[in-house]
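Entry for zinc ion complex. Fields follow.
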Amino acid sequence: MKDQMTIVILLTVYVIFAVVAFGSAAPAPAPDMPLAKLLDYAPQDINKFWQQTFASSNKRYAAPLVLPYYLPYRTPCGDSLMNNAFYCPPDNIIHYDYNFISRIYSQVGDYAVASLIAHEWGHSVQTQLGISKGKFFSIQMELQADCFAGAYTQYARQAGELEDGDLEKAGVGLFNAGDRIGTPWFAPQAHGKPMERISAFLDGYKGGVKACFSR
Ligand SMILES: [Zn+2]
């Protein structure tokens, strides 16, 4: 059950994204890609974006694997948690709880899942660029990963892959995953306040990867 306040906020998120994407109110969302297809397609497409981005640098790049789990299990980054998705640097794997992802898919939509994978992929990029060596507070890393997800989203849009409503789904996904009121910004698990996350995503969407280094 959503309370009235949440509905007002979600509507605001929709309007912000609609204005950024279309300059006006968004058309009705397109039907979602089936989940199985999405989980196959999104990582391949995100990888294409980063391969191209890295190709114009002299840095090495290795695509992370994207693997589901159904029960808690041990990874080099500790035991996996239910209702979570995370990037683990030692094995270069994005681990995700399948039921968690499937819930986001049914409650928010396909692009909320795609942008979540793009966010985790961003952590792999940070690791490979060596910018995750304790230089940043967690929250800066998280917001930069949101920015990277936004940069990928612009690439998807230019490739004609973004459908009506996709940006809004990303926005609602980010909004729902934002820190609860009262989480200190320096907390180890802090990801940023909902509007900070959305604004980081939009920086990448509007300015590309470059913008994610100057935030
Ligand atoms: Zn993250």
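NOTE: Helices lie at 4-22, 35-55, 98-107, 110-129, 138-158, 166-177, 194-211.
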